Amino acid sequence: MRRSTPPRHAVVIFSGGLDSAVTAYKLRAEKVALSLLSFNYGQRHVKELDHAANLAVQLGAAHDIVDLTSLGRILGGSALTDTAIPVPLGHYRAETMRSTVVPNRNAILLEIAAGAAVAAGADAVAFGAHAGDHAIYPDCRPEFFTAIERSMKAGNEGHMAVDFQLVAPFLNLTKTDIVREGARLGVPFEMTWSCYDGAELHCGACGTCVERREAFEGAGVSDPTFYRSARKGAAR
Q1: Are strands 33-40 and 62-67 parallel, antiparallel or unpaired?
Q2: What is the C-alpha separation between 7 and 167, in angstroms, rounded?
């Protein structure tokens, strides 16, 4: 049975992106103590970590960045970790977005977060996966959520809080829902970073930029993001 009450202390997978930011703000609004955990896994958009650090200050929450840069060298074949592979343009659900999959990434990050939760005496790990990710990323699907939570509990039995839970509040919601919730919570969207290109400004044409723009439009919320491109882009 999943608990009906919020956890007391959550370790949050915190990229500095829109989804993880709204997850953290939602938990804070529920009076949950936060430990924010970011990862440098060799991603080309590593500047997201600066945004994560700034958001952590704004949240007044503890923040750590885990150095997994060597991981990027062995998890090849992804546009996020291999600069020889172009970041695909166009809609996020386009077949070309498969090139942005980093093999087993969420399982790796979540299991590290589980260890951090045990060490800190936290009773939850939280991440911002949402329904829009399901078509592309197998490690954002409900069946993965169930399996990885079971793994966390089995691997830490007798050491983890007895009421430990994996929290994914947007698992069955859309990016538009997340923006709407973030607006309600007063999330400073301008401080978040989504673009996979990793340049000075959001490119406005890659899959995650297109998804971000459409989410704000769908939610009827003003988008504070500066984009290099005024168009939404077409898939390569």
Answers
A1: parallel
A2: 9
Nearest to 172 by CA among 219, 133, 221: 133
> Which residues lie across from 38 on neighbouring strands?
65
Is residue 6 within 8 Å of 27, Cβ to Cβ? Answer: yes
Output the six-digit token pair for 206: 């890659």
The partner residues of 206 in beta bridges, in order of sequence, read: 89
The full length of the chain comes to 236
pLDDT in tens, 103-158: 788 999 999 999 999 999 999 999 999 987 757 788 888 999 999 999 999 999 99
Neighbours of 191 (CB within 10 A): 15
Return d(Cα 167, Cα 223) in angstroms, integer. 27
- Alpha-carbon span 208 to 2, nearest angstrom: 31
pLDDT tens for each residue of 46-79: 999 999 999 999 999 999 999 999 887 787 777 6
Name the one residue in this structure whose structure tokens are 């009773």: 123
- What's the angle, vertex CA 175, arms to CA 17 and CA 166, rounded to 5? 70
